[in-house]
Write a structure and sequence with these properties.
By secondary structure, the chain is an alpha/beta fold. The chain has three domains: 167 residues, Rossmann fold (3-Layer(aba) Sandwich), CATH 3.40.50; 156 residues, Dihydrodipicolinate Reductase, domain 2, CATH 3.30.360.10; 85 residues, Alpha-Beta Plaits. Helix content is 36%, strand content 23%. It has 15 helices and 16 strands. Strands 7, 8, 9, 10, 11, 12, 13, 14, 15 and 16 form a ten-stranded mixed beta sheet that branches. Helix 6 packs parallel to helix 11, helix 8 crosses helix 9 and helix 14 packs antiparallel against helix 15. The chain is elongated and about 85 Å long. The model has no long low-confidence stretch (mean pLDDT 94).
Length: 442
């Protein structure tokens, strides 16, 4: 083991000077003295690479080599840590693999890349024995990944439930408390910068699914095939269902859920009703939260700002500090990037959505006529689904009225089979709305 002189800096190269990259640069410049006091040695940013560097360079970048070619960072033998903050799959994937081949330590916040190509990247890291950190990929400034790897790593993780997309949480919060429709709130979110011009990645649940895949991998020591995660977004959520849920005592959130069932693991992203007095139900606006339940720990909540330049830059800086300490002491790979020894991870199949068991909120638009409610309850009963509560609203001559049923715990396969029959019947006028209920009995 070799150690470095106390005053010798660790040299950094930054790829990407967008929102997060600029946030990281500003934090590094602002807190140089604090960072050196914490580390005992300085950090030196030598090179910044960005395809549009000529339009982004300013006086604040004086003394730093600026380039449009990221390979200059990778091929520079003086640079010890490569920080990738460009996002997307390519060229980020190639740049990270090339950096790992050069035996450089690597930091990224690229959730989509880790979720879809993580196995390839982590195999390369294992082969090269380099260090790899990615705290900024999940939850912005919330230190959830480091906690799973180290702080609560001695616990068997039983479940994770997370509000891990701030855009969706902002939309659902305003729909809930201001009684605004989805399209109106989405436009406001775009105007405020909380949603992209094309918000599909957020509102269709894919961003949350990317993060959930990473959380599941670190929690269970199991490779997660991203394409097998069932994903439902919030695009079709209506105020009427939020209101009915509140009558039952529930709050609607978009959740990323991961559960350890022993022989299988259950990962899914979808809107879900939570008891209004639960910890997660009280997380509003653009904030994120992850509720982790450990076998010995019990429930713990990690809460904070889940996106944005400053929170994510804070997480990236924490990674840089961790890797810089390893470089300074020569103690690489002390903690495996995934929290489990590479050769001790266990392949386990995913629980199918049909095998999920929970309570269900069902809203039928039914003809207001004798026998309708008994028909609905009869079909559900035939499939072994018992009813906990019913709300039936008003009378509408010649039209349909909402009939809302809250079920007891049932397998999703049985609920789906019952709804196939009901939705083909003459008793209802449109497809049934189904929303799962989480957390009531936990």
């Amino acid at each position: 083991m070799t150690t470095r002189h106390r005053s010798e800096p660790v040299v950094l190269g930054l790829i990407g000077l967008g929102t997060v990259g600029t946030g990281f640069f500003n934090l590094l410049q602002k807190e140089q003295k604090l960072l050196e006091r914490r580390l005992g040695f300085p950090l030196r940013l030598k090179t910044i690479a960005d395809r549009r560097i000529e339009t982004k360079a300013g006086k604040e970048h004086q003394g730093i080599h600026l380039t449009s070619d990221a390979q200059e960072i990778i091929s520079d033998p003086e640079i010890q840590i490569v920080i990738e903050l460009i996002g997307g799959i390519e060229p980020a994937r190639t740049l990270l693999l090339d950096s790992i081949k050069e035996r450089k330590s690597v930091v990224t916040a690229n959730k989509a890349l880790l979720a879809t190509h993580g196995e390839e990247l982590f195999a390369a890291v294992h082969a090269s024995r380099t260090d790899f950190a990615f705290e900024g990929a999940v939850g912005g400034g919330i230190p959830i990944l480091r906690s799973l790897r180290e702080g609560i790593g001695g616990n068997r993780i039983l479940s994770i439930k997370g509000i891990i997309n701030g855009t969706c949480n902002y939309i659902l919060t305003r729909m809930t408390y201001e009684h605004l429709d989805f399209d109106t709130v989405l436009k406001d979110a775009q105007a405020l910068g909380y949603a992209e011009c094309d918000p599909s990645l957020d509102i269709d649940g894919m961003d949350a699914a990317h993060k959930l895949a990473i959380l599941g991998t670190l929690s269970f020591g199991t490779p997660i095939p991203f394409e097998q995660i069932p994903v439902e977004g919030i695009r079709g959520i209506q105020i009427v269902d939020i209101d009915f849920g509140r009558e039952f005592g529930y709050t609607l959130k978009l959740l990323g859920i991961a559960k350890d069932h022993g022989s299988t693991i259950d990962l899914r992203v979808h809107p879900a009703f939570l008891p209004e007095d639960s910890m997660l139900a009280e997380v509003d606006g653009v904030f994120n939260a992850v509720e982790v339940t450990g076998e010995s720990l019990g429930p713990a909540l990690f809460y904070g700002r889940g996106a944005g330049a400053d929170p994510t830059a804070t997480a990236v800086m924490g990674d840089v500090m961790e890797l810089a300490r390893a470089i300074h002491t020569g103690c690489f790979h002390q903690v495996p990037p995934l929290g489990f020894s590479w050769n001790d991870r266990v392949q386990r199949p995913m629980t199918g959505l049909d095998e999920v068991r929970c309570e269900y909120y069902l809203r039928f638009m039914a003809h207001d006529q004798p026998g309708t409610l008994s028909y609905l309850s009869g079909v559900l009963g035939t499939h072994g689904i018992s009813i906990e509560s019913v709300i039936q609203k008003g009378r509408k001559k010649g039209g349909s009225v909402p009939v809302v049923i809250l079920t007891h715990t049932a397998p999703e396969s049985s609920v789906r089979a019952a709804l196939q029959i009901i939705d083909r019947s003459t008793h209802v006028t449109e497809p049934t709305v189904l929303i799962r209920v989480e957390g009531k009995d936990e």
